[in-house]
Design brief:
The chain has about 350 residues and is of the alpha/beta class. It has 2 domains: about 5-180, Pyruvate-ferredoxin oxidoreductase, PFOR, domain III (Pyruvate-ferredoxin Oxidoreductase, domain 3, 3-Layer(aba) Sandwich); about 200-345, 3-Layer(aba) Sandwich (Rossmann fold), CATH 3.40.50. It has helices at about 15-30, 75-80, 115-120, 130-140, 145-155, 160-180, 200-210, 225-235, 250-260, 275-280, 280-290, 315-320, 335-345; strands at about 5-10, 35-40, 50-55, 70-75, 85-95, 110-115, 215-220, 245, 265-270, 295. The strands form 2 sheets. It has a 6-stranded mixed sheet, sandwiched between helices.
């Protein structure tokens, strides 16, 4: 019996790695577990290694763990890149489709599971990630009924047949892995307290913090990795009497936000490093007119255009000293999702 778990799924970009982690995480969240996750993206729509790592616990966790209990692999690269994170009692489940090769220097148990073949028999190979979720549930002795509500929410708009097929895939993966394990239960997760808890990424927390502070307007230009803030507020603000405008560029986003604040509406804009560079003159305008301006900089990695799908804390000097002339600026740097919520709300009151 274990009270916390580190789980990772990996494969090629476009194989449903993010949705696999999302469905698994939401289901465990509904059971009352605390979660902390990290998503690794490839900088392209399809192809290139990507993974989703999740830490699950019966008590609060604030970081990802270094080691790994379970690794789900849809390709050999996932095994080669990540297997050293597995501890000696860890479990690897790899798609039998690619004939996985077990590393010689690992004590973790490895199972070749026909994710793709099972999914194909049920109608489409695209459901192999659902088969993997079922197999994981078998290793952890989870009740797979918890996934029904989540699958309904995510796939319900596509019709009941799609929902039923995905649940069939989860059940098939569960039953196959149960048969492979036999009487030896590899690991069993302690039951959580069942309490409902929020589950969100940092960008969602920022958007929710803005709404809680009374923000009713956002102007922004789409840019990775900040676009999720705009996407969240597009769904929420209209119902609260607010509005979101997708502008033609970063400068327009900043100046519209200044205009809204000048008119008495709490407003926000969000961008990444390259967008922050373009906003510098507008930040000066905010200072010289003494108009409040809340800007979110969801930081990329590297200089210039940078790495849109990677993160780095390298914009601090630009945020503090980037503008010309002398104007007062307050820079806040949240270190957790929880702090992202509270710091954003506080930013509107400074």
């Amino acid at each position: 019996m274990i009270n916390q778990l580190s789980w990772k799924v990996g494969g090629q970009q476009g194989e449903g790695i993010e949705s696999t982690g999302e469905i698994f995480s939401i289901a465990l969240n509904r059971l009352g577990y605390y979660l902390y996750g990290y998503r690794h993206f490839s900088s392209r729509i399809k192809g290139g290694h990507t993974n989703n790592k999740i830490r699950v616990s019966t008590t609060q966790v604030r970081s990802i763990s270094d080691d790994l209990d379970i690794l789900v692999a849809f390709d050999q690269e996932t095994i080669d890149v990540n297997y050293k994170e597995l501890h000696e009692n860890g479990v690897m489940m790899a798609d039998a489709k690619f004939n996985p090769k077990e590393p010689e220097d690992t004590q973790a148990s490895m199972y070749a599971v026909p994710f793709t073949d099972i999914a194909t028999e049920l109608g489409t190979s695209l459901m192999k990630n659902m088969v993997a979720i079922g197999a994981t549930s078998a290793v952890l002795d989870l009740d797979i009924q918890v996934f029904e509500e989540v699958v309904q929410e995510i796939f319900g708009r596509k019709g009941q047949q799609v929902v039923d097929k995905n649940m069939e895939a989860i059940k098939a993966g569960y039953e196959y892995m149960k048969e492979q394990l036999g009487d030896s239960q590899t690991m069993q997760l302690e039951k959580a307290d069942g309490q409902k808890r929020l589950f969100m990424i940092g960008n969602d927390a920022i958007a929710l913090g803005a709404v809680s502070a009374g923000c009713r307007f956002m102007a922004a230009y789409p840019i990775t990795p900040a676009s999720e803030i705009m996407e969240y507020l597009i769904k929420k603000l209209p119902a609260l009497g607010g509005a979101v405008i997708q502008t033609e560029d970063e400068i327009a986003a900043a100046t519209m936000t200044i205009g809204a604040n000048y008119a008495g509406v709490r407003a926000i804009t969000a961008s990444a490093g390259p967008g922050l560079s373009l906003k510098m003159e507008a930040i000066g305008l905010s200072g010289i007119t003494e108009t409040p301006l809340v800007i979110v900089d969801t930081q990329r990695g590297g200089p210039s255009t940078g790495l849109p799908t990677k993160q780095e804390q390298s914009d601090l000097m630009a945020m503090i000293y980037g503008t010309h002339g002398e104007i007062p600026e307050i820079v806040m740097a949240p270190s957790t999702v929880q702090e992202a919520f509270y710091d954003t709300a506080e930013a509107f009151n400074l």
